[in-house]
């Protein structure tokens, strides 16, 4: 995954990469953190982790162009301090358990 993320950061830092789709069902963990926040022009992010874990970390509030976020995984983990941008107009999360839903609610200020 190191080469993939390095390539995405290099291209994404230019601000011209608008859409990223990742389908990596055979990895143990998919970390969506600092490399995502470096992609200033990102509008759509889709991550399919299959049976792996997706780990969300970092403050994504600087991704003001991000409108659509789709994640599908066995488990989605929210690190302390992880924040989603207010620019989101489409959010799709699949295979959430109760703990994942509570983590998301904390990030966007929802109440259960």
Quick description:
By secondary structure, the protein is an alpha/beta fold. Helices cover 23% and strands 34% of the residues.
What are its keywords?
single chain; alpha/beta; 3 helices; 112 residues
What this model shows, in words?
The mean pLDDT is 80. The protein has 3 helices and 5 strands, in the order αββαβββα. It has one domain (14-108). The N and C termini lie far apart (36 Å). Strands 1, 2, 3, 4 and 5 form a 5-stranded parallel beta sheet that branches. Helices cover 23% and strands 34% of the residues.
Query: Are there runs of 5+ residues with pLDDT below 50, and where?
Result: none
Q: Tell how many strands the DSSP assignment holds.
A: 5
Helix and strand sequence: HEEHEEEH
Which percent range fits the helix content? 10-25%
Shape: globular
How far apart lie the N and C ends?
36 Å
Enumerate how many helices there are, as a single number.
Answer: 3
Report the biggest beta sheet as strand number plus sense, adding barrel if it closes.
5 strands, parallel
Number of domains: 1
Relative strand content: 25-35%
**Rg (C-alpha, Å):** 13 Å
